[in-house]
Design brief:
Transcription Regulator spoIIAA, alpha/beta, 92 residues
Length: 92
Amino acid sequence: MKPHGRLTEQMVADLRQRLLHALAKGPEVLEVDLSQVTYLAPGCCGALLAAAAVAPQVDARLAVTHPNARTRITLLQHGLGDLIDDGVAPPL
């Protein structure tokens, strides 16, 4: 999934629906590529959090990739740092 532009508060319901629909398709990992996102509203962080909570119930994992600096800060401020997948394996 590759959203783009400004993800504003008005887009929260649509983003949540798109994430949950994508998870329902049964991927092992749902990658949310934020490379083209220029702004991430706090409510959209809630949509990501909701999808992350549903993912284990369908044997999936949500991975947020390629956030720009501003989007990364927003994710971290809302406690979503664990969803950021930089392609670095966690330590054993």
